[in-house]
Amino acid sequence: MAFRGWKWLLLLGRQNTFAKAWRSRRGGPSLRWKRCCHWSASKSLDPEVRAFLEENTEVTSSGHLTPEIRLRLLTPRCRFWREKPDLWPYGDPFWAIYWPGGQALSRYILDNPRVVKGRSVLDLGSGCGATAIAAVMSGASQVLANDIDPIAGMAMILNCELNHLNPFPITIKNIINSEAGNWDLIVLGDMFYDEQLADGLHHWLRKCIRIQQTEVLIGDPGRHQFLSHSIHSQLHKVIEYSLPEYTRQENNGLTSSIVWSYQPSNSLENC
Ligand SMILES: C[S@@+](CC[C@H](N)C(=O)[O-])C[C@H]1O[C@@H](n2cnc3c(N)ncnc32)[C@H](O)[C@@H]1O
């Protein structure tokens, strides 16, 4: 199938070679604030970036599992759905899609607020920030969103605004391989799409569980890289959601998305 616009991103996990080629050809995101690692709610958005994001996304609350959350997303009505990706001035916009893994996690949190209520939550690989937003809406005492794409951080601030929330702290530092953070709960939606990334995540999550007794919830719609990874044998199924028709069509035949609890049997071993 020939993909001309950003819709090829939806081949998550199957497009990595292509994605890497784009990145090496275009270089990384060129933003004057790209070195900024930790934003606070008061950090204002670069007006040019804000205007670009507002012009090139659509506000939507339908077609996904959490209609109570409004998001700016890339939809078939947006110019870059079909426009040549090399006209896009930033890195690949994974944040502009609400992935099935994140949808399942957010639905689960909104329906079961006790999972996050009064707890500190890290949303790792936040993308559009929907799962972090669900955690705030459900009463988490502290939420940190982490995504290595600085534009994702900007999009999350816009998405908080849309949902009448004060933006939560956002970090764009790559925290995998760093010290285990002291979080009650780490949530990861659709993060196991690349083998190397999956290995890094697995190692770091085990460390967090061993050192901090962190609880870990993973949302995934059954991607090959996830099902074939060694972490899969140490998961307990929490809940499965049937995906809305629009998300099914967007995701080339995926029909459901599962929330898993990661409980390594050997979490006491040295990592
Ligand atoms: C497939 S998207 C999932 C986004 C969101 N969790 C959801 O389910 O809608 C994966 C996201 O992870 C981010 N990402 C990739 N590697 C990362 C890393 N090492 N640390 C933090 N975020 C990362 C990407 O920038 C992207 O926004």
UniProtKB/TrEMBL annotation:
<keyword id="KW-0809">Transit peptide</keyword>
<dbReference type="InterPro" id="IPR050078">
    <property type="entry name" value="Ribosomal_L11_MeTrfase_PrmA"/>
</dbReference>
<dbReference type="GO" id="GO:0005759">
    <property type="term" value="C:mitochondrial matrix"/>
</dbReference>
<dbReference type="GO" id="GO:1904736">
    <property type="term" value="P:negative regulation of fatty acid beta-oxidation using acyl-CoA dehydrogenase"/>
</dbReference>
<keyword id="KW-0732">Signal</keyword>
<keyword id="KW-0489">Methyltransferase</keyword>
<dbReference type="GO" id="GO:0032259">
    <property type="term" value="P:methylation"/>
</dbReference>
<dbReference type="GO" id="GO:0016279">
    <property type="term" value="F:protein-lysine N-methyltransferase activity"/>
</dbReference>
<feature type="signal peptide">
    <location>
        <begin position="1"/>
        <end position="21"/>
    </location>
</feature>
<dbReference type="Pfam" id="PF06325">
    <property type="entry name" value="PrmA"/>
</dbReference>
<keyword id="KW-0808">Transferase</keyword>
<protein>
    <recommendedName>
        <fullName>Electron transfer flavoprotein beta subunit lysine methyltransferase</fullName>
    </recommendedName>
</protein>
<keyword id="KW-0496">Mitochondrion</keyword>
<dbReference type="InterPro" id="IPR029063">
    <property type="entry name" value="SAM-dependent_MTases_sf"/>
</dbReference>
<comment type="similarity">
    <text>Belongs to the methyltransferase superfamily. ETFBKMT family.</text>
</comment>
<keyword id="KW-0963">Cytoplasm</keyword>
